[in-house]
Amino acid sequence: MILLLITTTTILKQKCQRLLSTYDHITLMCVHSVDDALNTVVWDDVTLVILAQEGRVTHACQRLHEAKPHHPIIPIISAITERDALLEAGATDILISPLSPIAIKTRLAPYLAQPSAHPEKNQTEKLAVMGRLSAGLIHEINNPMQGIKGAMMLALEELNDPVSLKEYLELAIEQADRVTKLIAHVHKVNPLDNDEQDEVVLDHLLEEIDPLIRKEMGWKKLRLNKHFAPSLPTIWGSANQLRFLFMNIIFAICDLSEERGGELSLYAMSIGKMVRVEFRTAVLSTAPLPQLNAKLALSYSTALTHNGKLTSIKQKEQSIIRIEFPIHKEPSP
What we know:
The chain is an alpha/beta fold. The protein has three domains: 2-112, Response regulator (Rossmann fold); 120-188, Helix Hairpins; 198-326, Heat Shock Protein 90. It contains eleven helices and eleven strands. Strands 6-8-9-11-10 form a five-stranded mixed sheet. Strands 2-1-3-4 form a four-stranded parallel sheet, with helices on both faces. β1, α1 and β2 form a beta-alpha-beta unit.
């Protein structure tokens, strides 16, 4: 993993070098300007760009994003007055003031945990998600199984009444279909399956995980509101990994939410050349951003491997977790 630091600030360069020296799998490359980065760097080796130039940071970020649109750009600067402009210019929301080593480490932490660098940790986190899914699945399956049992018991009492017997048997079949569909959904998110890449329509994928997270959200008294734009473009990636990305976000929100419940709004839309998914909720109002970022480490790294970016935004009344991916193909008219 190679981090590219573009800075005119010697002090920041020294801080980053000391900080990242403890990571054996990370190489820090430093250049003086955006021009140097574009002209001299072998970009195939770069995993992440840290922009810490003085002066026109937004302009520099826009130039980098236009030249290298698939490379996540993290501006680390000592003021946050350009935050919205930086996001529009293609930056990831990592803005630090003051530039202390602790602040830098906290904000960079989700990006340092790449799947290739920590395969065992990444697999452990996936299996933890599967464990939570299994716990919810047990409860989801219990109801239709009780329905099947009740319908069959009633059917035994109506052996001489073909009409009633048919009704009870059809009810049992209907409940058995519910169980079959739930199990099929779980098979789709098996972390031991291969991660073949193909075209993915995000709203379809988000609909698939709905029944798998419904029980977990019910325990936290969270209501899910979905707002999907029609005819979303496709992105290119592993549907298996992307399911884990979104479920990990929902589980993080459940973990940090307060017990009194609330609403989670889920949006999917196209913005320019990107497909954007947003989770908006007020239940994280008391959760510190670093704590949320730590729980989203798996989702951060998965977004990066799909040439996307994940942004955590804290506002007065709500928190927004935003993921953007480059469009692979527009839908046919």
